[in-house]
Protein: Mannose or cellobiose epimerase, N-acyl-D-glucosamine 2-epimerase family
Organism: Pseudomonas deceptionensis
Amino acid sequence: MTDLTRTSDSWLTSLPHQQWLRDQGQALVDFAKAARVPDGFAQLDCFGRRPDDAPANTVTTARMVHSFALAHIQGLPGCTPLIDHGLAALAGPLRDASHGGWFASAHGQDGNTRKEAYLHAFVALAASSAAVAGRGGADQLLSDAVQVLEEHFWSEPEGALLESFAGDWSDCEAYRGANSNMHGTEAFLALADVLDQDLWLNRALRIAERVIHQHAAQSHYLPIEHFDARWQPLPDYNQDNPADGFRPFGKTPGHAFEWARLLLHLEAARKQRGLPAPEWLLEDARQLFRSACQHGWNVDGNSGIVYTLDWNNQPVVRERLHWTLAEASAAAAALLQRTEEHEYEVWYQQFWDYIDLYMIDRQHGSWHHELGVDNQPTQKIWPGKPDLYHAYQATLLPRLPLAISLASALKLRR
């Protein structure tokens, strides 16, 4: 790659690029408004249509609340009723009134009554952003979410989140997941800011130390995704279902990008609050980014980032998922902010070039959520366009500081 001539040439300081990001963010938010259903928010198809009988989904609802809260804080009209609708759904039909916590769908109608750490992390993130946006009911939802995290999911001896429980909080799953703990880290960063508590940054550091500094460092800085209850890797996990949307077999380059960004947010947040920030946070972020680029980008002869790799770092599932590119561009922006090194500028521009040319759907709106090896839209893993959160954050993160939550950073910039 060729370095740019000056740091001042960065797209991060380019007013036209910042406006382009704003325009993209506005379009994504407008597209997602159609996802509202009586019990929360549902998944949209690839044309942005919502079937009349589409059920509310708790993860989708929480991500929408978070995203619409960020949009409202920026001053985008039409979002406050959607935030309030999502908050009411999370406090009502999506919540388990008997045992506490949240179902995957309204009243557990999909038959899945297990309580999952991944889902609860997003409820906490949504509540924290809505609280910064000043919406009624957000503070109570945040208090409820924190209580559930404290009482059930956080394992102090392990320094990490437990994975899932039965609906009555029995039957703790004998599995530990890097994905749920990654999004737990994201939620903890927001909680530390919104609640003004160092505790959450200390917990985030413990998760990162275990999942990244210990395990990923032993796997060429591509995070190991699946562990048993003693945090021993499970290399064959889901080998018969390699394209699972949440627990795929092997390694996931997109998560290396996502972790790289989160480590830099954690470093900045700890420094801002006067807490020790280990040097390995930056170094591990560099290594994660480098490995993801080396083993994920253009590795099968075509442009894009493959979804998964095997244990020899060879592609397994070669589809290109939109969230992976969103996290790659955001990680490049974070490393560029932190280091001012031209290498990350080149990667940042390269990722957005790909997104612009292949991911953005200029005919039907939003981004294609999945492309095949030929970079044409497909729906093998993720049908439709249910996810506002990843793409929208990718338009925000390059314009915000690394420390404090996205919601608080946007509020300070108004």
